[in-house]
Amino acid sequence: MANSLINIAQRKAAGARHIARKEFYRVCRKTDFTWRYLANLNPWLEYRKLRQPLTAIQQRVLNSLIQDGIAITSVDEFLENPSLYQDLFDAVTERENLKAHEIQLARKKTAEEAETKSYLVNLIDRGHLFHPEDIFIRFAVLPEITAIINGYFGMLTKLFYCNVWHNLPMTGAARESQLWHRDPEDRYILKLFVYMTHVDEHSGATCYAPGTHPRGNVKRKPEQTLCKEGDAYNYRTGDEQMAKVVSREKWITAIGPKRTMLFLDTRGYHKGGLVRRNDRILYNCMYNSIATAYPKSARPKLSHVPKLARSIEFLLAD
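Below the sequence we write its predicted structure tokens.
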């Protein structure tokens, strides 16, 4: 009986700490100063001790991210070991084969707006147990990628998402994330896309409004419409509304062949995934600070966290 009461008290205390922490982070995200030096003080201090000089290509990518909120490069230009792409491609092909029936069924349902993102198949199921040796994880924490992520945030960060998206052609009007939007979960949110197929303007290329990210110089917000999407409501912006804030000729459309790598801060306005022909398949990861509102339960689940360089271990550890 005593142990049961102790366990209940411990759970209640843990719940109270969790609520208090979420409220603390919510307040801290309102300014860069409090977000960085209060909510993320320890990761910021650790990064200052661990950061290493960047290579020329890493510095170019980081500069583009800081200025525009988006940077486009390639596996061959950016990675020290480009052959890892083949390992990733083979793993994606294996997932495609495992999901072949689901993909075929999804092709018939792309126009069903009642089902959120009916045009998208995630090749890795939620709750999938990763091993650190899996290429999906190994690629996400490559030292050269980690250098960009932590360099942009100016602190050690966490890997919060890892999956492969298969976008299917559809004929209806753009909807959901195919419309302009910004992600809400953190002050900076950095995503990595690696193309497994050629991506052009007809196959769902991501489009970005440069300078609308937190580190950018575009502070004006476009008009937004509150849209019901499944059980949720989200703000979306159309092309005409966005063009009043950032002119169309400045929009960056991330077209590219297989092996293209795309870094983008999705706190800036962006849209993508509207495929009219030629399926889009891309590997993608998301990196946030410890102060993110993104649920911890949704992070990639690992069988164990091996002993690695501190900045990489931090990405994976709870």
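The mean pLDDT is 92.
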